[in-house]
Structure formats: C-alpha cells, structure tokens
Write a structure and sequence with these properties.
CATH topology of the largest domain: Fructose-1,6-Bisphosphatase, Chain A, domain 1
Number of strands: 15
Bound molecules: 2,5-anhydro-1,6-di-O-phosphono-D-mannitol, magnesium ion
CATH superfamily of the largest domain: Fructose-1,6-Bisphosphatase, subunit A, domain 1
Mean pLDDT: 89
Strand content: 15-25%
Largest sheet: 8 strands, mixed
C-alpha cells in the first residue's frame, strides 16, 4: 500500500515559515504559489515537447538577437499570464522582452517586482537536456502607482526571494526567501511540489569546475591561469579537478549547489560588443548569487560580490563565478594577481 503520509508541500513550508514571522503579510506565499502554477504548466510542455512539435524555431529573434524557440515563447507567455493579474507586482521583466512589462491597467498592482528568465538554456531543448526557469523578486521602491525600471534595477543584496525551477529527470523548484535554500520536487502523480531538499548547504570547497572551455582563448590571463592550475592539481587532494559543463545555467548551478565546486562564465572577449560575459545580471546572476550566498556559497564578478553590483540596464551582462566559497576566493586571488586592470573576470 502507498504511504498515506503526505510530504511537506511548498505551501505548507511557506505557511510554517510565515508563522515564525507574525508581521508577514502572506504576499510571498501568494507569489510562490503563482510561480509554481506556471512551473507546472511549463514542466508539462517541456516533457512532451518532442511530441507536440513545440521544438524548432519561431523564426523571430529575441532582444539578445538570438533565435526564439517555440517553447521559450510559450514559457514566457505562461509566466506573464500567471503573474500579471496576481496583484503582487507593480512591474515585471523577462529575458524575452526588451522593455519592462507593465501590469495591465485592468489588474491591481502590488508592492513587489519580478525579473525572470522563463526558459534558460534553450539551446538544449532539442537534445532533451535539462533546462530551467529563474526568478528574482524585489520590493517596489519607486513612488508612482505602477512601478518603473528603478524597481527592477536594484542590487541583488535587496532581493526578498529568488529561485529556479529545473526541468530535468524530475522537475525541481529551489528557492530562498532569505532563510536558507530549500528544494522541492514535483510529484507528477499529485501535481504538488514536495519538500525533498531542506536547507541546502554548499560544501566549503569542491573539486568540480564548470565552464565552457571552448572560450579559453578569449578569457583574461587570471581566469586562464586559474583553470590551468585546478586542472593540474587540487591543493587539498593533490589530484586534478573534475570538469562538468552542461551549458544550461540552471542545471550547472544546481549541480554546483549540491556537489560543490565552481561554475564560471567569464568575461568573453570574442564578441567585442559583449566584453563582460554572457549571463544577464537581473534574471540569471542576481537570483543565482542570492541562492548561493543563502546556501553558504559565494558569487562574484571575479572582483566583487555579484549581489553588491548596482544594475544599470535591464539586460546587462556580467562575468559570473559562483560556488563553494573557498573555490570562488581562490579564483578571485588569480584575477587580482594576473589581471591588473579592474575589468572583472
Ligand atoms: P539563454 O538564456 O539564451 O538560454 O543563454 C544562457 C545559457 C545559460 O543557461 C548557460 O550557462 C549559457 O547560456 C551557456 O552558454 P555557452 O553555450 O556559451 O556555453
Ligand atoms: Mg537565460
């Protein structure tokens, strides 16, 4: 007979945390509730993508100049429509949309704003490799009634919640509201996210490095020297590090969080228009850095914590290094030593 004891649902987890904070309004649980609805819909479509011809290109380009796949479009629409009417947000931003997304006039606005990447790692869709959604929630700081870009361009240090959903061998939601990092796995038979990874803590030091090494010729001296060093030997064990790179930030970061080590997307000089790395600050790096720090890890531009960066543009890109705190510090030492100009990683 099946176990009749229901696991801890995400809703129960949030409710119990809320009880510890009598001043809480319940707004965050409403936000996470809407995110999980969207995540379940996207998860369902990702799982049947090969069957229903969602694969393939729409022929359009997104604001980054990349081809938009149908599933990216779909996920973007699902997240917008799950969030815009909720009354929690004053403004939103998506990787797929050039400008901030206003809340339609017929819906109420609320005291938060959200930035999200609806389907990250989309180059992996066609080959059935894990992809994900990333989200970051800030409190509204502007004074007007409906929010503006100022609300979205806040340092990550001020985030009130962030998380990701990984659509992998199972669908998992990993999130933090500033009280540690907690993981929930979707039980498809009941359609609920159940707590599977309470209070995730990253190892102080790991021995896995994760980076697109094809870009080696374009890296700065500091990053090259660091990667050469860890490929030679881990000072702790005397053995070389292990390489793992999926090319899906959510999956690579998820593994880094659980197994330790370092994930890197350094400044990439092969594209002169993009001398600061590929990953986007607001909806990729800030939320991942928030989770990393909440789990006891670190996230850096190579010179300073990602969470201390003050964003200047919605789709701003930054160099990104995150993982076990000792690994990230070690990388920063190489950058400081070999990259004389303050140009980050
Ligand atoms: P995307 O938002 O267009 O999917 O791009 C972001 C993805 C990340 O998931 C991943 O870390 C990175 O691009 C991989 O880039 P590369 O193929 O250059 O290694
Ligand atoms: Mg992305």
């Amino acid at each position: 007979m099946a176990d009749s004891k229901l696991g801890i649902t995400l809703a129960r987890h949030i409710y119990e945390r809320q009880k510890e904070h009598p001043e809480a309004t319940g707004e965050l649980s409403g936000i996470l509730g809407q995110i999980t609805v969207a995540a379940k819909v996207v998860s369902r479509e990702v799982n049947k993508a090969g069957l229903v011809e969602l694969l393939g290109l729409t022929g359009e380009k997104n604001v980054q100049g990349e081809e938009v796949k149908r599933l990216d479009d779909f996920a973007n629409d699902v997240f917008i429509s799950a969030l815009d009417h909720s009354g929690h947000f004053c403004i939103m931003a998506s990787e797929e949309v050039a400008e901030p997304i206003p809340i339609p006039l017929e819906y109420p606005t609320g005291p938060y704003c959200i930035a999200f990447d609806p389907l990250d790692g989309s180059s992996n869709i066609d080959v059935n490799v894990s992809i994900g959604t990333i989200f970051a929630v800030h409190r509204k700081v502007s004074h007007g009634p409906r929010g503006c870009e100022e609300d979205l361009l806040q340092p990550g240090r001020r985030l009130v919640a962030a998380g990701y959903i990984v659509y992998g061998s199972s669908t998992m939601l990993v999130m933090s509201t500033g009280n540690g990092v907690h993981g929930f796995t979707l039980d498809p038979s009941v359609g609920e996210f159940l707590q599977s990874h309470p209070d995730i803590r990253i190892a102080k030091r790991g021995k896995i490095y994760s980076v697109n090494e094809g870009n080696y010729p374009y890296w700065s001296e500091g990053v090259r020297k660091y990667v050469n060093y860890i490929k030679e030997r881990d000072p702790a064990t005397g053995r070389p590090y292990t390489a793992r790179y999926i090319g899906s930030m959510v999956a690579d970061m998820h593994r880094t969080l659980l197994y330790g080590g370092i994930f890197m997307y350094p400044k990439d000089r092969k594209d002169p228009k993009n001398p600061v790395g590929k990953l986007r600050l607001l909806y990729e790096c800030q939320p991942m850095a928030f989770l990393m720090e909440q789990a006891g890890g670190a996230a850096s531009t190579g010179r300073a914590p990602i969470l201390d960066m003050r964003p200047t543009a919605l789709h701003q890109r930054v160099p990104f290094f995150a993982g076990s705190p000792e690994n990230v510090r070690h990388l920063e030492e190489f950058i400081l030593k070999y990259n004389p100009a303050p140009v980050g990683g």
